[in-house]
Every structure is written in C-alpha cells, then in structure tokens.
C-alpha cells in the first residue's frame, strides 16, 4: 500500500523483490533445484529468497581485484545467520556452530549486534550440511534475514529475578507467534527429498505474513525496566517490560517505529528512535505484537524498499493513525504509554552471581569475532571451556559472550583456561575498548564502502590513549563504527558514531545519550581515518575541563549542540 495516501500499488509499481516473494510459493522458489547445480552461486531470485532462510550470498572482496586481473570469477561464498532469541545458546549448539565454522566456514564465529551467530565463508555446496548441523542442535536460521520478523532480542543476563523470569517464559511464545509458518525451510534444508519447489503444499498457509511477507525487515527487542542493553529504541517494535506491585512481570510499554538505516545524501531516508505508542498487560503482548506487524504488512510501502520500513509508514501517516489501526486489530483497549526511563545501560561484563550458588562471566569479545589469533586463542579457549564445563552461552547485544551457570568451584577453571590461551579477562581492558562496537564491513559485506571491524581495534586504542591523557578513562564513552550508513553497529546511538563514507573516510557523530534514547548528530564530515582522534581531541579536552560531575560526553555535546561545537572548534559545517 502507498504510505502517503493509502492506495494499493499497481502490479508493475511493486518493487522487484515483492514480485519474487509473491511468486515464491512461500519462499520455495527454485532453491531446491538450484542447490543441485554445481555452481558457486544461486540465481538472482533465489539470492533474495535465501535471505529468508538465513543465508546471504557474498564474495570475498579482498580477492576481487586479483580475480579481475586474472580474469577469474569472484570468490563467492555464503554467510549463514542463526536466529537466536535472547541470545541463548546451549553448550551443544555452541559446539555445533564452532564445528561448522571450522569445517565449512572461515574458522571464525561472529556474535552479532542482535545476539545471533554469523558464519562466514561457507561454500554453496556446504550449505545444507551446515544448516542441518545447526538444526540438529535445535536452532534455526529461518528468519535470520529477509522481510519477516528478525531475531527477537532480549537482555541475556542470567539473573534470577521475577521480572526476568516472566519475560523469559514469554519469549518462546512470542517468537513462534511472529515466525513464518512455511514448510519450505524444512523441505529444502532438512528433509532432503524435495523434488520440485513449484507448488505450495495443499493447506499450507502463512496466516501472519500472507503470500508476500512483509514490505521489509522487521525488528523487535524486549527491554527490561531499568536495563536497556538491547537498544530497544532502534527497533520497529520495542517492548519494555515493567513490574507489577509484587515485582513480577506486569506488562509492556509498546514502542514503535525505530530504525537506523539511511542512505548518504538522501535526506528522505533517516535514522530515528522508536516512540511509545501504548501499554499492554503481559497476556496481551503477543496479540499487540502481531497487530503491529499486520498493520505494517498491510500498509507499508511495497514500491520502494528505501521507504518500506515501519518508521516511514509512521512518519507519513502519523503515530495516532498507526495506533488506531493497531487498536482495530486487537480485542482489548490499548492502554496509554507509560514513561520509560533508563538509569544506566548494563554491558553485563565480568563475574556476577546468577543465584545463590551459580555465577556467570560476561566476556568481552572484540567486535564479536570469535577467532584464534597468535597472541590470544579465543575460539579454542571458548571451545575448551564449553567442552569441559558445559556452560550455557549467551550472546549479548554488544557482541559479547556470557558463560552462564558456572558453579562456584568452576570459576578458577574458567579463568585458567582463558589464561592458558592468552585471553585477557575483562579487568585488564580499557573501558572505551569494552564499550566499542564495529560492524563486519570489508571483506564480506557487499554494502561496505569503508573498513570497520578491521580498523576499529587501532582507532579505539588511540582514542583510549587520548582519554587516559585527559583523565577521562572512566567517563563511559561509547564509540561505534560502521563501514556504511546502514547503521548495523547502531552508530547513531553511541556517544561517538563513526560512519564510513568512502574508503578511509568517516562521518563523525557526537551527542548520543548513554541510555540509547537519543540519536547523535553529525559533527564532522568525511574525516580521514588517521584524523579521527585529532578531530575528537579538542571536544574531549573541552569536555574534560567543563564537565559537571559525572556528566556524560554525549549529554555534554548534545547540550551545546553541533553548531556551537563546530564554531568553537572550527569544523566545516555539514553540507
Ligand atoms: Fe545490518 C544489511 C550485518 C544489525 C541495518 N547488515 C546488512 C548486511 C546483511 C549486508 C547486506 O545486506 O548485504 C550485513 C552483513 C555483513 C556481513 O558480512 O556479515 C549486515 N547487521 C549486520 C550485523 C552482523 C552487524 C554486526 O556487527 O553484528 C548485525 C546482524 C544482526 C542480526 O543478527 O540480525 C546487523 N543492521 C543491524 C542493525 C542493528 C540492530 O538491528 O540493532 C541495523 C540498524 C537498525 C535497523 O535495522 O534500522 C542494521 N543492515 C542494516 C541495513 C539498513 C536497513 C534500513 O532500514 O535501511 C542493511 C541494508 C538493507 O537492509 O538494505 C543491513
Ligand atoms: Fe555492511 Fe554497512 Fe552493515 Fe557495516 S553497516 S555491515 S558496512 S551494511
């Protein structure tokens, strides 16, 4: 539907992906046939459908030039994303992912900013075995990507508490209420005996998604009153759990319309935070979530993918209009939204008690990459811990790992294994490094225009040295970098955001709040990688001098405003 006037687009106005989805027989397409072809890639339509199955067709961009010079094909490979609600991974599932990475992938696992695992570098011929291994360990890649509900995020800290227990009990039900119902995934990847994908089996329905699924990706996160570690405001649908009088789960505040993706120099695309729409009781949250998805399904823009996320529907039609449509879909009266406030944001690092006898360790993973390097063999260390002590592994929205369910008597063993493998336990890390995030960008991401994960370790350590020099080591400054404006490491919500504009250059943003409720603002454009610290230094120096008490850097910048900051430090105004 057209988001501005509500008219239905004509067939030839639909975006190409809409036609692929509509003709796919519930995401089957010709994927099964394509898998039998001895080619390194899938056909164009199947590349789109693959995403719904949790697979991206990529290439190793480091090898592109060389291949071109030699007149060879690009180095095609697949990325597999497992959907992991709340980031909870059993010991068996952890080991299964480690095995797939080792046997068929590039030897690394990557914890994503939405608490999933990504496995890069899998060849087409190894996809089925990889996906089967993941399913054998009781996880799925269905809905890892594509125009459906993505992984539902939730605070992963395994702390025994009535509110957390209530949310944990509800999460699986919410996940299954918002998951696609197609049998295509099982047929193609697991049953193995599908001959033709040309027909939808009789009686198979997609009650929530219909024949065309959603206009675009759809993201949901559950925040817990007082703990916004999931960055709930970055989501299409944000659910903030609140307590009843006894401290147990009382209900949810419902936030809608967040999203960070934007395209450079296209002001009609924008990042924005989710805003409160309503509040509901806990037993109403599934119905309201399905209703929000359904309104976006029926009214979202299917003609232009750059304008298809829920945030544009709400910007075009207004929050009141959207709320009315949601109200029409549910069987109860929506409550007024409650005020949402976040005292601080937890990263859940270090040792903490889960309950009377057990502990968990939040372990910092630089940019989410679990790999063996010469000095620190992190992947081997984690494998050894999981094999010997069988902790549950939980993935955090800051790309870190929690080892959960560790008995008092096992703590020394965990630390000893980490030490033997050269892995620093968090105490040794600089706070600025701990709070940093970067997206994968080059060489796997097809949309990257600049480096991110590979340059961030050096950038953040240089920045950390400046902070030390200025006495700001413990100022809690978060820095997030991405290799393009799509915002995968949520750079627009950091105290500092570094967003790649072209190879070696980054837009520098400042002024986000540590609680993740406010977007930061563009301070300096297309700064050379080597000049990032020098660009930030005068601001940090002034902040160190003028800071009041424990004031956050982002708050200080925001209070002054970027225009004054640019005037003060003679930075060219943004075009
Ligand atoms: Fe993302 C596309 C990686 C979280 C906004 N994202 C991509 C792709 C799949 C590139 C592509 O389409 O070909 C990247 C794969 C790179 C690679 O080689 O692995 C990619 N996104 C990631 C991850 C792995 C970054 C990370 O450092 O962990 C995150 C995986 C999350 C997951 O497990 O599901 C990831 N992406 C995000 C987030 C953050 C979030 O959701 O909290 C955002 C901003 C929030 C939002 O969606 O608005 C985000 N990714 C995008 C966009 C822009 C969407 C838009 O509305 O414009 C794209 C491009 C697109 O969809 O067209 C994108
Ligand atoms: Fe790729 Fe851009 Fe996302 Fe980074 S922000 S992973 S470069 S799409």
Task: Briefly characterize the structure.
By secondary structure, the chain is an alpha+beta fold. The chain is built from 18 helices and 20 strands. The strands form four sheets. Strands 1-2-5-4-13 form a five-stranded antiparallel beta sheet.
List keywords for this structure.
575 residues; alpha+beta; Sulfite Reductase Hemoprotein, domain 1; Sulfite Reductase Hemoprotein, domain 2; five-stranded antiparallel β-sheet; 18% strand; binds siroheme; binds iron/sulfur cluster
How would you describe this structure to a colleague?
The protein is of the alpha+beta class. The chain folds into 3 domains: 194 residues, Sulfite Reductase Hemoprotein, domain 1; 77 residues, Alpha-Beta Complex (Sulfite Reductase Hemoprotein, domain 2), CATH 3.90.480; 136 residues, 2-Layer Sandwich (Sulfite Reductase Hemoprotein, domain 1), CATH 3.30.413. 31% of the residues lie in helices and 18% in strands. The chain is built from 18 helices and 20 strands. The chain has a 5-stranded antiparallel beta sheet. A 5-stranded antiparallel beta sheet has the order 3-14-15-12-11. Helix 5 runs antiparallel to helix 6, helix 12 runs antiparallel to helix 13 and helix 15 runs parallel beside helix 16. The longest helix has 16 residues. The radius of gyration is 23 Å and the shape is globular. The two termini are 34 Å apart. 49% of the residues are buried. The mean pLDDT is 94. The site of iron/sulfur cluster has 13 residues, from loops. The site of iron/sulfur cluster (SF4) has 13 residues, from loops.
């Amino acid at each position: 539907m057209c988001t501005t006037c509500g008219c239905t687009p004509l067939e030839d106005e639909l975006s190409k992906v809409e036609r692929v989805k509509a003709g796919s027989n519930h995401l089957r397409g010709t994927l099964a046939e394509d898998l039998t072809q001895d080619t390194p890639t899938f056909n164009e339509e199947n590349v789109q459908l693959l995403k719904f199955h949790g697979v991206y067709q990529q290439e190793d961009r480091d090898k592109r030039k060389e291949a071109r010079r030699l007149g060879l094909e690009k180095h095609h490979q697949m990325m597999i994303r497992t959907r992991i609600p709340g980031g909870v991974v059993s010991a068996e599932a952890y080991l299964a992912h480690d095995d797939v990475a080792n046997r068929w992938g590039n030897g690394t696992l990557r914890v994503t900013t939405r608490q999933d695992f990504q496995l890069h570098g899998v060849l087409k011929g190894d996809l089925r075995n990889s996906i089967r291994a993941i399913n054998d360990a009781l996880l799925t890649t269905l809905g890892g990507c594509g125009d459906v509900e993505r992984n539902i995020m939730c605070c992963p800290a395994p702390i025994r508490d009535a509110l957390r227990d209530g949310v944990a009990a509800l999460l699986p039900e919410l996940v299954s209420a918002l998951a696609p119902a197609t049998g295509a995934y099982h047929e193609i990847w697991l049953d193995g005996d599908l001959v033709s994908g040309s027909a939808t089996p009789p009686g198979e329905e997609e009650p929530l998604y219909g024949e065309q699924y959603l206009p675009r990706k759809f993201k949901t996160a559950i925040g817990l009153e007082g703990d916004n570690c999931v960055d709930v405001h970055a989501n299409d649908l944000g659910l903030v759990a609140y307590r009843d009088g006894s401290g147990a789960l009382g209900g949810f505040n419902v936030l809608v319309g967040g999203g960070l993706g934007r395209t450079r120099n296209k002001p009609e695309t924008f990042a924005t935070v989710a805003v409160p729409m309503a509040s509901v009781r806990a037993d109403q949250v599934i119905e309201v979530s399905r209703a929000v998805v359904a309104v976006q399904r029926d009214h979202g823009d299917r003609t232009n993918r750059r304008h298809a996320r829920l945030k544009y529907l709400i910007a075009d039609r207004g929050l009141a209009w959207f709320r009315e449509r949601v109200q029409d879909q549910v069987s109860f009266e929506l409550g007024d939204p409650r005020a949402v406030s976040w005292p601080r944001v937890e990263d859940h690092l270090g040792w903490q008690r889960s309950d009377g006898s057990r502990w968990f360790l939040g372990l910092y993973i630089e940019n989410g990459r679990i790999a063996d390097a010469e000095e620190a063999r992190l992947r081997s260390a984690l494998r050894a811990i999981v094999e010997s002590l069988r902790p549950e592994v939980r993935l955090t929205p800051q790309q870190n790992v929690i080892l959960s369910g560790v008995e008092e008597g096992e703590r020394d063993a965990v630390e000893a294994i980490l030490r033997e493998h050269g892995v620093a336990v968090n105490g040794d890390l600089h706070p600025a490094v701990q709070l940093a995030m970067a997206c994968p960008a080059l060489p796997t991401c097809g949309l990257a225009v600049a480096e991110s994960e590979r340059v961030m370790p050096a950038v953040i350590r240089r920045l950390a040295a400046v902070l030390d020099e200025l006495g700001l080591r413990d100022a809690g400054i978060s820095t997030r970098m991405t290799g393009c404006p799509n915002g995968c490491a949520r750079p627009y919500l950091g105290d500092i955001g570094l967003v790649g504009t072209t190879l070696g250059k980054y837009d520098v943003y400042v002024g986000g709040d540590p609680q993740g409720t406010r977007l930061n603002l563009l301070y300096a454009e297309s700064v050379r990688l080597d000049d990032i610290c020098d660009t930030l230094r005068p601001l940090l120096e002034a902040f160190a001098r003028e800071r009041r008490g424990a004031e956050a850097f982002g708050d200080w910048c925001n209070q002054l405003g970027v225009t004054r900051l640019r005037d003060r430090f003679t930075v060219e105004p943004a075009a």
